[in-house]
């Protein structure tokens, strides 16, 4: 006879239904979030490790729903990717980032060589028109070449290397730089990496956060930095939370860092304040 699981099932069923209901509600909410202006961008400073200067920022998407409150991109980005909604949302992110950067440069609130990075999902990158449409918007904006960077995760990139490469080549020919995000987590093959026009490798937070306590993670970070040097790439360490980590990164030759030690992602006003204060130091 089957074990009696009926009581457990009865206890369990409502919570499965609740979770399902919640997901459906969230999907529905996500579908109309863009049209209802519920998204905004926050900006995390990127610091040149040697000079301490703010040399750029990463734009990160935020969603605050009027009833559900703050919803993390860790939760809603995968939903948007699964539903295809990421294409419209991703377009909005690029437009918003371009307009923000134009504003900052026009008002001299950031340095002339400042660059802004946007995260791009693999679903966006493998649209045949992705690069052309981005470049079209960039050229229309009159931003200096090289002011915009795209961050693509290593795992996303490896999902469809051939399609991704075509798009990235077009971008890099027009001096939009390409960063590989979460580098070291996606088992990408070096043979493939060699064929991609990448100019930045971002060391994943997982390695950085345990670097000062775990010698193995320290060696991994070191390996990424050495590899970046061989590929003529800049290394950016993400998730730097302690001065010891920053010092280790400097000693290893890492060039750029982001993380709570310097600043969390900031709303526009605070970001500009941060830049102004840093310039006076
Ligand atoms: P990511 O691209 O790896 O972004 C870095 C994440 O680490 C951000 O989380 C950032 O707030 C967080 N972070 C920064 N410094 C520290 C630190 O010192 N310690 C810790 N613990 N965390 C730190 P966030 O903003 O929640 O974003 C999560 C992920 O959502 C991003 O990971 C990215 O994959 C995705 N995402 C965010 N915005 C967008 C977007 O506009 N488009 C797409 N496609 N994905 C996005
Ligand atoms: Ca990123
Ligand atoms: Ca990352
Ligand atoms: Ca990450």
From TrEMBL:
Q: Which residues form a coiled coil?
A: none
- At the top level, the lineage of the source is Bacteria
| Ranges of residues in domain EAL | 23-279
Keyword entries, A-Z: Phosphoprotein
Q: Name one GO biological process term.
A: phosphorelay signal transduction system
**Single GO MF annotation:** cyclic-guanylate-specific phosphodiesterase activity
Q: Transmembrane segments in this chain: where?
A: none
This protein is called what? EAL domain, c-di-GMP-specific phosphodiesterase class I (Or its enzymatically inactive variant)
Which residues of the parent chain are present? 302 to 582 of 584
């Amino acid at each position: 006879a089957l074990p009696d699981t009926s009581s457990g099932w009865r206890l369990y069923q409502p919570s499965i239904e609740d979770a399902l209901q919640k997901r459906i509600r969230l999907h529905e909410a996500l579908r109309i979030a863009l049209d209802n202006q519920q998204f905004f961008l926050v900006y995390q400073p990127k610091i040149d490790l040697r000079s301490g200067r703010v040399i750029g920022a990463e734009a990160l998407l935020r969603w605050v729903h009027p009833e559900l409150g703050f919803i993390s991109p860790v939760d809603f980005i995968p939903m948007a990717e699964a539903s295809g909604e990421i294409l419209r949302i991703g377009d909005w992110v690029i437009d918003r980032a371009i307009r923000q950067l134009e504003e900052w440069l026009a008002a001299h609130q950031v340095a002339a060589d400042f660059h802004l990075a946007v995260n791009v999902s693999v679903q966006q990158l493998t649209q045949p028109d992705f690069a052309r449409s981005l470049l079209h918007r960039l050229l229309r904006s009159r931003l200096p070449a090289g002011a915009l960077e795209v961050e693509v995760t290593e795992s996303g990139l490896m999902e469809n290397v051939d399609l991704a490469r075509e798009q990235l080549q077009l971008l890099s020919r027009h001096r939009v730089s390409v960063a590989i995000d979460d580098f070291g987590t996606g088992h990408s093959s070096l043979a493939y990496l060699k064929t991609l026009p990448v100019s930045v490798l971002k060391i994943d937070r997982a390695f950085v956060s345990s670097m000062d306590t775990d010698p193995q993670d320290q060696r991994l970070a070191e390996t990424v930095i050495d590899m970046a040097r061989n590929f003529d790439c800049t290394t950016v360490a993400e998730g730097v939370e302690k001065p010891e980590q920053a010092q280790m990164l400097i000693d290893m030759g890492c060039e750029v860092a982001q993380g709570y030690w310097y600043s969390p992602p900031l709303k526009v006003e605070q970001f500009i304040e941060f830049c102004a204060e840093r310039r006076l130091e």
